[in-house]
Amino acid sequence: MIARTLRVAGGFVALVRTGLIVGLVIAALIYPMVALTGAGVKRGTDALATPVGALRSSLPAQTSHVYAADGTTLLAQFYEEYRTYTTLKTISPNIQKAIVAAEDARFWEHHGVDFKGVARAFVANQKAGAVSQGASTLTMQYVRNVLRDSADTPAEVSEATEQTGARKLREMKLAIELEKHMSKTEILERYLNVAYFGHRAYGVLAAAEVYFSKRPADLTVPEAALLAGLVQAPSSYDPAAGASAATVRRDYVIDRMADLGYLDAAAASAARATPIALKLSEPPNDCLATQPGWGFFCAMFRSWWSNQPGLGATSDERLDKLRRGGYTVVTSLDPRIQAVAQAQVLKREKTRSAYALGQVAVEPGTGLIRAMAVNRTYSLDRASNGPHSDPRQRKRLRGNYPNTVNPLLGGGDMAGYQAGSTFKMFTLLAALEQGMPLSTAIDSPKTFVSKYKTGRDSPARCGVDSWCPSNASNSMTGRQTMWSGFGKSVNTFFVQLEQRVGAESAVRMAERLGLHWRTGIDRLQASPAKAKTWGAFTLGVADTTPLEMAGAFATVAADGIHCEPIPVTSIRQVDGTEATDAAGVPVAAPRCARVLSPDVARGAVDAARCVTGFKAATGDCGGWGTASKVYPTVRRPVAGKSGTTDDNRAAWFVGMTPGLTIAGFIADPDNPLHRVGSANAGKPRETVAETLRDALTGTAVRQFTPPSTTIAYGANAKPRAFKPRR
Questions:
Q1: How many CA within 13 A on the CB side of residue 721?
Q2: Tell me, what's a Pfam family for it (predicted)?
Q3: Fewest CB atoms within 10 A around its CB: which of 179, 283, 352, 668?
Q4: Model pTM?
C-alpha cells in the first residue's frame, strides 16, 4: 500500500507544481474525513491568488521595546505576541538542527511539499479514520503562520488554520511557489521567528529567554531539543507543568537528531542524560511591569502614542502598531532625574496617604519630559487600598492609594486640579505683551470689589452684585508693582491687572502656552462668549495638570519658545528607519514654536525671580516672596510661582531654571474638597526646590537674561544696563 501510494504521489510532483487538479487530489488523500465540496474547491482556488511576494516580505508581529533616555535602560515592552526577530547567524546551530529533526527531517531535500510525508500521513490517517498526521513541512507551517498573522478578521484567521482540504491545498501550492523565490536558510530563519513555543513566547529568541533566560546563540543540545519538541504541542509538553512528558518529547528529538547524523552516539547519550533545568522568566508587558515609579510616565507615553496621527489613522490602529510593530523607542525619561524626583516625593508624603504629592520635570527649549514622580504605585490591585476620602463613596469604594493607574500627573483623561495663583503668570504675560511695564503700580487693598459681575467698579454688595477677592494677609496691602505683586502673590493687584488687560487675554495666553480646558464649566468659561468676564481666572480656578503647567512655565524659561511636552527622542521602525508622519517629519521631533517675544518672556522671569528669593535683575521685589527659601536651596538662578486654592484644598509650586522646569502639587485626587491644609501647603515648594538642586548637580550654571529697559520701565524710560545676579 505504501509503495503504491509513493509511486502515485511521486508521479504527481511535476503536475502539482503547475496545476490545481492534482493538488486537490493530494489534499483529499491527506484529509479523507474532510471532503472538498464545491464551495471548498472555490475557496481553495481563490486562496491561490495570495501573492508569494506578500509571504516573502511579511514579517511577524514583533515586540516593541521602549527605553529610557540613555537608550539602554529598558522602560517597558509592548507586545501582542512576545517576539523579537533575530537572524539565523545569531541562532545556535543546535536549535536549527533540532527543529528540522523534530518537524521536517527532509526539509533540505524537498521543494516545499514532502510527498513521502504525504504518503505516510495518508496511511496513518486511513488507519485512524481521522486526521492523525498532517505532513506539513516547515515551509508549509511558515505559510500557515504568516497567513494567520496577517489576517485582519476572525474569519480570515479561521480560514488560515481550519482543518480543511482547501486550507491544505493553499499551503501546499504557496509552499512550492515560495521555495522558488526563497532559499532554505531564509525559510528556516523565518520559521524560527514565527513558531510558537508556549508561555507567550513566539520565535526562538523569545523562547530561549522565557525558558532559559539566555540568548538563542547559547542554547545547548538538550535545551534546543526541548524547545524544538514544544512546537508540536506547547501545552502538552510544557516543561514548567511537569518534566515527564517534556523529557520524553525532548529525548525523541535528540534521537531524531542522532538518526539524521546531527549528533554522534556519545553526544546524544549525554544530552538524554542531562536533566531539564529551566530558568523561567516572565516577559514584561505594557506599563504594569515597569521599574518602580516609572509606570505613570509609561502610561503617559502610551496615551501620547495613541494620539499621534503619524502613527496610524485611529487610536486603536496606533496601539496595535505599538504592540505588533517591533518599534525601538528611546524616551525622554532621565533615570537619574526620575530617581531624584521620586525620592523627594516619598521623602515628604508616604504612598498610603490620601494626598497625592507629585511633580513633572520638563526641559525648556525641547519640551522633553525628564521625570514624572508621585507618591503612588502604578498598579491595578486595589484590594489593600486605603478608605475613600469622600464620605459619600467610602461604603462602596476604596481610595486610589497607594495603588492606582489614574493619570495623576497629566497626559490622560483626568481633568487635573485647580492650580491657584500659578495662573497669575498668564495675566502677567498678557500685560507685558500689551505694553505694560514691570514697574506698573496699582493700589492693592485687602479686599477688592470687582466689576466683572455688573460692569460697575463699585457695586453695593460683595458676593451678590460682584466678586470681591481678598489678599491672604495684610502685609500684601498697599501699592504694588508687577515685581512685588507677583513675588508676594497679591490677589487684589492681579485682579485689577487682569481687568486692565481683559480676562480673555489671560485665558488665550494660557492656551498659547499649552493649557487645555478639561471640564464642562472650564470650557464654557473659556468660550468667546464668557472668557471676557472670567475674572477669577487669574486666581487659578480652572483645572490643569502638572504636565501642562511644567510645559507652560518652560516656555517662559525658554525665552518664549513653546515646545509641546513630549516623551520621546527617537522612534525607529523594525527596519531601523525613523518613524515619520505623512509629511516626512519624524514623529519624535520636538514640536516647538515661538509664542512670546523673548523680551516679554524675560520680563516674566524677572518678576518670577522675586518669588524664590533670587531677586529681580531690573526692579524691587518689595522685600519678600512667597517661596523665598527656594533660591538658597537650589543655589543657582531660579524663578517660579507658588499657588494655593480656596481653603488650601490644593497647593502648587512651579520652579524654573534655564535648563529644567518642574511643576509640583499636592491634592486629594479622590476628593477635591479634602483640604491639604497649611501644614502640607509647603511640600510642593520644598520638593521642587530640592529636586532642582539635586537634578542639576554637576551641570553648568546658566543665567537668565534680564529684560530690556522698555519691559522693565516702559517705552519712554532711559536705557540702562542690568547686571544678572549670580
A1: 1
A2: Transgly
A3: 352
A4: 0.86
